[in-house]
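Form 7-S
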Amino acid sequence: KKSEQELKDEEMELFTKYYMEWKGGRKSGNTSYTNIPRFYYRLPAEDEILLQKLREESRAVFLQRKSRELLDNEELQNLWFLLDKHQTSPMTGEEAMINYENFLKVGEKAGPKCKQFFTAKIFAKLLHDDPYGRIAIMQFFNYVMRKG
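Output:
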């Protein structure tokens, strides 16, 4: 006959065995969680000077890269000039309009920073109820200024 302690030990041993089998079986069945990249990193503490400096430098480099992607005043003026030059008649009231064909021509001439704005998706987003299938130049320019 087994003592109460021996029964508890045996029960714990069986529990551990079955738990590890269950956990191991589940783990081998779905390993997609091992492919998920880490997205949270804790902020460095005050005494971790090297980590703080690394964080500051990383942030500065990131902001510099993002600011280089922004259109400067000269590039915006050039874009406005190209849009105005390629407007499609007839005008709707006071508003200058542009069709898709001219929109693509402006996109080719505007430069690499502007390329991201000259897509069919953006044109369709700004297209409303013009009978000639055009968008308002001012509306597109404001879109570029907000997003760029």
